[in-house]
Amino acid sequence: TRSLTILGIESSCDDTAAAVVRDCDVLASVVYGQTALHAEFGGVVPEIAARAHAEKLDHCIEEALAVAGVTFADLDAIAVTAGPGLIGGVLSGVMCAKGLSAATGLPLIGVNHLAGHALTPRLTDQLTYPYLMLLVSGGHCQFLIAAGHDSFQRIGGTIDDAPGEAFDKTARLLGLPQPGGPSVEKAAKTGDAQRFPLPRPLLNQPGCDMSFSGLKTAILRARDSVVAEKGGLTSQDQADLSASFQAAITDVLIEKSRRALDAYLALNPEKPAFAIAGGVAANTAVREGLMALCVELETDFVAPPLRLCTDNAAMIAYAGLERMQAGEQDDLTLSARPRWPL
Ligand code: KG4
Ligand code: ZN
């Protein structure tokens, strides 16, 4: 197949990102996080996010093209996240991509953000279909069997909150900075995971469904009991609560991954392959637990580098590239979709 060079644009949550991907090479991947803008509000404020995307996108794209050393003339298409996500942000990206497509004549390709995450192991490791995927981020948590760029079978997932959201909530409760995942992981390093016995929701139920909302309540109660006793949290309390929380999440993800892998391997015994993506896949305890599981089950394990696990535009460019290879593209009627299941 002919070499393809794609510009990717991502703005569905709180990262403004642009990237240039040529086949499986990431020539540039620029990400402007908005964490500081939302810090004082304790969560992502959609209007602030949309405005910041609109302000930063042009610059982000220029930088990605410059780093990649390409101009629009070198590109084959423009791929943009068209959903799911915060609608104002998705619209900013889609409008920008439409403008560029109209001005340059380059094909426009709308990409599902979740497909971007789910195809990342193909970009980074040239993983062939089919494979089992655990997509685990701030907004999502699901097991998918990926059989093609637009063929995903969901075999289980969270019935309420996503683990990343629980990490973020836990950080807020403990007075640790956002985004919560990295700060809880850091605090957990010096903590005692045994000190607070937290629930492992649905662990003993059959199937691959998960639940994390009860865990958020449990960590709230555990914190309140320490605060009631001592009047506040010491850094050791923060570390122990973080470690106990991370252990509960990790136990659930690993046990449910074992079940999902059993189900997948029963269907695809000749192709043992398991990949993870999404922001929580950046967590070392989660990665190491899943790696050990795959060693035990003699399954290939793909964990993309951290910068391609969290939100980025290289995954969007690559998912666009697969759509283009399949002969698919959109036109200027492409719409932004707040909800868009795979
Ligand atoms: O995929 P992502 O960048 O955005 C979407 O949600 O689509 O994921 C962000 C989420 C946040 O909730 C963040 O706290 C979590 O991923 N996260 C982590 C880690 N790094 C990011 N969670 C646990 N451990 C980490 N090291
Ligand atoms: Zn994401």
From TrEMBL:
Keywords: Acyltransferase, Cytoplasm, Iron, Metal-binding, Transferase, tRNA processing
A biological-process GO annotation: tRNA threonylcarbamoyladenosine modification
Domain of life from the UniProt record: Bacteria
Pfam families: TsaD
UniProt xrefs under InterPro entries: ATPase_NBD (IPR043129), Gcp-like_dom (IPR000905), KAE1/TsaD (IPR017861), TsaD (IPR022450)
EC annotation from Swiss-Prot or TrEMBL: 2.3.1.234
Enzyme type, top EC level: transferase
GO molecular function: iron ion binding; tRNA N(6)-L-threonylcarbamoyladenine synthase activity
The reaction(s) this protein catalyses: L-threonylcarbamoyladenylate + adenosine(37) in tRNA = N(6)-L-threonylcarbamoyladenosine(37) in tRNA + AMP + H(+)
One cellular component term from this protein's GO annotations in UniProt: cytoplasm
Family: Belongs to the KAE1 / TsaD family.
Protein known as: tRNA N6-adenosine threonylcarbamoyltransferase
